[in-house]
Design a protein that fits this description.
With 277 residues, the protein is α/β, with parallel strands linked by helices. It contains seven helices and twelve strands. The strands form three sheets. The protein has a six-stranded mixed sheet. A three-stranded mixed sheet has the order 1-3-2, covered by helices on one side. It has a three-stranded antiparallel sheet with strand order 4-5-6. The longest helix is centred in the first third of the chain and has 56 residues. It is elongated and about 125 Å long. The N and C termini lie far apart (160 Å).
């Protein structure tokens, strides 16, 4: 083989560009870098909506929080102070008297009305059985009361005491005679007895027009409640307090058919077999 002529192997190996290996690595690196950039751009493109939505929700949440804080701050400020007290449900009581007793709450922000102080003032009104407070922004406090229903008078050493069905003393009259229009209660065992509880239940079950005619209620046991009707002195033998609602309906029907002036007694102790004498 002549000198200087290269062998095929030598031609092949020497025929390669000296930088071919280096160029391949750089191209791979550049391609990988470009791919990473493209991937990041794609991720940003797909997440930009999510970021925008998150920003909107954060803005809305911040606005709601600020609004709530502003509302709470205003509610506890003099802007919502009590300027008017309205009493609802007063019939026997004077609504103005109850409102005047609660005047100490005027100027107090509605959420800060002192319920303990309100209760302490309303205790002075025995006729109030229950009550509820209602705030009507911006300046009105409504007091809804339920009054006790008086059922009659009990004779005591101090005079005649008006009581409700639970035996709560509502007022006392020192005069020697009971007030007209209110029945006298003669109950064995006093207000703490079962006989009184039965008498109270009977009186509460009566329609208003019949209850207004009752002048006396007697009971020695829970099973022998008897009513006396004014004018005619007709007796209503009631018996126990069981089925009082039905007995009241039967009595009203019987009194309409045969008025008390024409009878001496109505026996409704067995409402299915009423006896009129």
């Amino acid at each position: 083989m002549p000198d200087g002529e290269k062998t095929p192997r030598e031609k092949t190996s020497r025929g390669k560009t000296p930088d071919a290996g280096d160029v391949g690595f750089r191209e791979v690196w550049k391609a990988s870098r470009a791919r990473r950039k493209a991937l990041r751009a794609e991720i940003r493109r797909f997440t930009v909506r999510q970021r925008r939505r998150r920003a909107i929700w954060l803005g809305v949440a911040a606005s709601v929080v600020l609004l709530a804080l502003g509302t709470i701050g205003a509610a506890y400020s003099p802007l919502f102070g009590v300027e008017k007290i309205t009493v609802v449900g007063a019939q026997q009581l004077a609504a103005d008297d109850v409102a005047d007793a609660l005047s100490g709450q005027l100027g107090t922000p509605l959420p800060l009305v002192d319920e303990s102080a309100v209760k302490a003032e309303l205790v002075a009104f025995p006729l109030i059985e229950t009550y509820a407070l209602e705030a009507r922004p911006p300046h009105e406090l409504v007091v809804r009361i339920v009054e006790r229903t008086p059922i009659g008078l009990i004779e005591t050493r101090a005079g005649y005491t008006l009581v409700d069905a639970a035996g709560v003393a509502l007022s006392t009259t020192a005069s020697g005679e009971p007030s007209p229009g209110t029945p006298l209660l003669t109950v064995t065992g006093g207000v703490d007895s079962d006989a009184f509880a039965a008498a109270g239940q009977v009186m509460r079950s009566l329609p208003d027009d019949i209850r207004a005619q009752v002048t006396e209620v007697t009971a020695s046991t829970p099973d022998d409640v008897t009513l006396t009707l004014g004018g005619s002195n007709a007796q209503v033998v009631w018996g126990s307090a069981e089925q009082s609602a039905r007995k009241a309906v039967v009595l009203a029907t019987a009194m309409a058919a045969r008025p008390p002036a024409d009878v001496s007694s109505y026996d409704v102790s067995s409402p299915d077999a009423i006896v009129i004498r």
